């Protein structure tokens, strides 16, 4: 099955179960001060769960464009380094608003994976919420019972509050969830069925594919959980992960969602994919980030100096930094990937085609402007190197490397790479000290991480005062009490 066929089969399947197919909401959220980007399929249904407005249809399904680069869900540092976290990804979902509950959600999830897609049942296992004393909630036996109809008890694993209890924010709708994981290790490597070790296993072939959330409580301001009169189902499955599984690949980047883009990067850069870890990471970073930037632009968010635009700018710069450092690309080239992106995703997202000229122009200009900044940084570095050598040193001051990082967006590895070519090194300890000082400064500014949402209490209001960044690419959202 091609990626397009997989997407269609999911929507068709839930449509056959009386779900209305609804479009993806924009990935960039425009009128919600508590959320910058859509990070899950359920975001657009938030007001239904909060009881602010009724559902137009009790069952819906869609494929939602998501972005996880800020707040509670920030996967940016993983992207490119692993093979299954993206910045932008599609989340396939089905919802019940006060309609069906655990039994049907579980039965249909299982039917779709094992009957429609014919995924090997032996490779699947599931988690259920183990319960929580402090919340006075027991194990989610209801979900476990529903699973027992389909899967052996040894493959139903208890999960803790962190992984198996979803909350919208400090207060509001919440509930236990049940995740479906798949073990794609080669047969000979697969352990005997030992669920516990699987769940704790950090293995890139044992991955979570689907999360079924059962919204059945309301978290009150005093921390108490009160059962909701209407119970809801909210599920989310990573489309790129699913396609990789269906196509039997060991990396999302080896499925047809990404191979055309990776091939084009290889062709443009002259580096072959699969030859070295460093260049592979860079190629994955670029392949991932071009999607994010192109889709942000079609959603009306151009790279800029503040808020969402700044996040997008930094993502593009991350792509340029990786390709500059590891793919030896000294000229703008990310924009040249837009064609192939349209060829792979234009069917499902026609706005890519209709806004092609704008996407290419914006990316090219951003790339060129950042490459000029890099060039300025490099000439500064040249001067520093000359001075260091003139003084007969071979160690460059860490504070200088930090300034390059802070002002010119030079990550330490880029500085080190250039220094290495000149037989110089950087004083890492000094660099770390400067970095820590900056983190302290950011921290003391009453920084809090966003939850999925920050629910503003009437008597405890917080005013949004902007985004900031802590480390190279980690953003924090800043609020102050008013
Ligand atoms: P993980 O533990 O792998 O980070 P998660 O538990 O944070 O995933 P959920 O919030 O449960 O993810 O989202 C539902 C599904 O979306 C996941 O089961 C996964 O298939 C997919 N998903 C989550 N984050 C990403 C990402 N960064 N890139 C691609 N797919 C993702
Ligand atoms: Mg995650
Ligand atoms: Mg998880
Ligand atoms: Mg999850």
Automatic annotation (TrEMBL):
<dbReference type="GO" id="GO:0005524">
    <property type="term" value="F:ATP binding"/>
</dbReference>
<keyword id="KW-0648">Protein biosynthesis</keyword>
<protein>
    <recommendedName>
        <fullName>Alanine--tRNA ligase</fullName>
        <ecNumber>6.1.1.7</ecNumber>
    </recommendedName>
</protein>
<comment type="similarity">
    <text>Belongs to the class-II aminoacyl-tRNA synthetase family.</text>
</comment>
<keyword id="KW-0479">Metal-binding</keyword>
<keyword id="KW-0067">ATP-binding</keyword>
<keyword id="KW-0175">Coiled coil</keyword>
<keyword id="KW-0820">tRNA-binding</keyword>
<keyword id="KW-0862">Zinc</keyword>
<dbReference type="GO" id="GO:0005737">
    <property type="term" value="C:cytoplasm"/>
</dbReference>
<dbReference type="GO" id="GO:0004813">
    <property type="term" value="F:alanine-tRNA ligase activity"/>
</dbReference>
<feature type="domain" description="Alanyl-transfer RNA synthetases family profile">
    <location>
        <begin position="1"/>
        <end position="482"/>
    </location>
</feature>
<keyword id="KW-0963">Cytoplasm</keyword>
<keyword id="KW-0694">RNA-binding</keyword>
<keyword id="KW-0547">Nucleotide-binding</keyword>
<dbReference type="GO" id="GO:0002161">
    <property type="term" value="F:aminoacyl-tRNA deacylase activity"/>
</dbReference>
<keyword id="KW-0030">Aminoacyl-tRNA synthetase</keyword>
<feature type="coiled-coil region">
    <location>
        <begin position="421"/>
        <end position="448"/>
    </location>
</feature>
<comment type="function">
    <text>Catalyzes the attachment of alanine to tRNA(Ala) in a two-step reaction: alanine is first activated by ATP to form Ala-AMP and then transferred to the acceptor end of tRNA(Ala). Also edits incorrectly charged Ser-tRNA(Ala) and Gly-tRNA(Ala) via its editing domain.</text>
</comment>
<keyword id="KW-0436">Ligase</keyword>
<dbReference type="GO" id="GO:0006419">
    <property type="term" value="P:alanyl-tRNA aminoacylation"/>
</dbReference>
<dbReference type="GO" id="GO:0000049">
    <property type="term" value="F:tRNA binding"/>
</dbReference>
<dbReference type="GO" id="GO:0008270">
    <property type="term" value="F:zinc ion binding"/>
</dbReference>
């Amino acid at each position: 099955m091609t990626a397009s066929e997989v997407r269609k089969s999911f929507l068709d399947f839930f449509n056959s179960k009386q779900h209305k197919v609804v479009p993806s909401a924009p990935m960039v959220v425009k009128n919600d001060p508590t959320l910058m980007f859509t990070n899950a399929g359920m975001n657009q249904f938030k007001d239904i769960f909060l009881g602010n407005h009724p559902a137009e249809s009790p069952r819906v399904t869609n494929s939602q464009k998501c972005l996880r680069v800020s707040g509670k869900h920030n996967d940016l540092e993983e992207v490119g380094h692993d093979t299954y976290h993206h910045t932008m990804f599609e989340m396939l979902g089905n919802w019940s608003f006060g309609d069906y509950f655990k039994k049907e959600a579980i039965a249909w999830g299982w039917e779709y994976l094992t009957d429609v897609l014919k995924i090997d049942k032996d490779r699947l296992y599931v988690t259920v919420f183990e319960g929580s004393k402090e919340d006075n909630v027991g194990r989610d036996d209801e979900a476990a019972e529903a699973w027992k109809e389909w899967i052996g008890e040894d493959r139903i694993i208890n999960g803790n509050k962190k992984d198996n209890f979803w909350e919208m924010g400090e207060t509001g709708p919440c509930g236990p969830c049940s995740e479906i994981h798949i073990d794609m290790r080669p047969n000979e490597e697969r352990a005997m069925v030992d669920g516990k070790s699987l769940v704790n296993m950090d293995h890139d072939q044992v991955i979570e594919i689907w999360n079924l959330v059962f919204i059945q409580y309301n978290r009150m301001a005093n921390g108490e959980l009160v059962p909701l009169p209407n119970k809801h189902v909210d599920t989310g499955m990573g489309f790129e992960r699913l396609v990789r599984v269906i196509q039997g690949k060991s990396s999302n980047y080896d499925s047809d969602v990404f191979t055309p883009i990776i091939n084009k990067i290889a062709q443009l850069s002259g580096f072959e994919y699969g030859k070295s870890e460093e260049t592979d990471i860079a190629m994955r970073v670029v392949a991932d980030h071009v999607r994010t930037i192109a889709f942000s632009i079609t959603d009306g968010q151009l790279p800029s100096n503040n808020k969402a635009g700044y996040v997008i700018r930094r993502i593009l710069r991350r792509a340029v930094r990786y390709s500059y450092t590891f793919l030896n690309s000294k000229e703008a080239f990310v924009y040249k990937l837009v064609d192939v992106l349209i060829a792979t995703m234009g069917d499902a997202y026609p706005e890519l085609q209709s806004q092609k000229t704008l996407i290419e122009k914006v990316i090219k200009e951003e790339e060129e402007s950042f490459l000029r900044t890099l060039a300025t940084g490099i000439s500064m570095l040249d001067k520093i190197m000359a001075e260091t050598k003139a003084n007969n040193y071979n160690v460059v001051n860490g504070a200088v490397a930090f300034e390059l990082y802070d002002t010119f967006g030079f990550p330490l590895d880029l500085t080190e790479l250039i220094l290495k070519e000149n037989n110089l090194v950087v004083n890492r300890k000094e660099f770390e000290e400067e970095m820590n000082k900056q983190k302290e400064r950011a921290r003391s500014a009453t920084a809090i991480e966003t939850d999925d949402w920050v629910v503003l209490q009437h008597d405890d209001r917080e005013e949004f005062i902007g985004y900031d960044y802590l480390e190279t690419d980690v953003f924090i959202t800043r609020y102050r009490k008013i």
